[in-house]
Amino acid sequence: MANKLTLDSVRDALIREEDSIVFSLIERARFPYNAPAYDSSFLGNGLSIAEFYVRESESLQAKVGRYQKPEDVPFFPKDLPRPFPPTKDSQSLLYPASASVSVNEAIWKFYFTELLPLFTEKGDDGNYASSVASDFVCLQAISRRIHYGKYVAEAKFTDAPQDYSTAISSEDRDRLMNLLTFVAVEEAVKKRVEKKARLFSQNVTLDENDSDQTKYKINPSVVSHLYDKWVMPLTKVVEVEYLLLRLS
Ligand SMILES: O=C(O)C(=O)C[C@]1(C(=O)O)C=C[C@@H](O)C=C1
């Protein structure tokens, strides 16, 4: 995140994050759904391969200093080890009491139960390790994008402190939701991510007439659906929750 927080600079960061999300989904779509990777009885330790992989990966990443930034939110924050390299005390641009907001439980749920079956083929090719490694990249990219909502909220608050303070003091969630919603921006986001999915996931060949160019590695409309149904609504939840803590 840039040093100076403006709504434009945060929106630029959100746009950049779209690339990461689209590419991560394309990578995961190389493998079929692979149901055994999500079966909690498969390993015999009560955890699915996916959950085991994410827990262990987060533990390692925490040791080397990840999860110090408000947009990097772990899925399993309990008992994460402390980082052992000295971490630079980065000046957060956020209001400290609000930095801890997390909607990762909701992200975990929609990703595995609703999104994954939408963009992977049915089937089982045994590539469980590669599948869950790709899932983790998808989850982190989606989570980071959604938790950037904290910066969006801070920028909006700074632009109109009076309007927001009144709604925050009366804990008026509906008013906050109204204040921070820009329908035209949301429409543009949905169109842009669909276009990116179309461009990034086409088969590039040198033959102009090759019909392969219209075959996509992921269905572009799934990406706009992802944004419409989960990414933007959850970003707004993060914004509201952040703001409600903003004056505490
Ligand atoms: O750009 C903003 O103003 C945001 O709050 C981000 C976002 C989004 O998630 O893309 C969410 C709410 C707005 O209605 C528009 C877009």
UniProtKB/TrEMBL annotation:
Record-linked InterPro entries: Chorismate_II_sf, Chorismate_mutase_AroQ_euk, CM_AroQ_sf_eucaryotic, CM_II_prokaryot
Pathway: Metabolic intermediate biosynthesis; prephenate biosynthesis; prephenate from chorismate: step 1/1
Domain Chorismate mutase stretches: 134-239
Name of this protein: Chorismate mutase
Organism: Carex littledalei
Keyword RNA-binding annotated: no
EC number of this enzyme: 5.4.99.5
GO molecular function: chorismate mutase activity
Principal subcellular localisation of the protein: cytoplasm
Entry keywords, A to Z: Amino-acid biosynthesis, Aromatic amino acid biosynthesis, Cytoplasm, Isomerase
Known catalytic reactions: chorismate = prephenate
Domain of life: Eukaryota
Location of this chain's protein in the cell: Cytoplasm
Cellular component per GO, a single term: cytoplasm
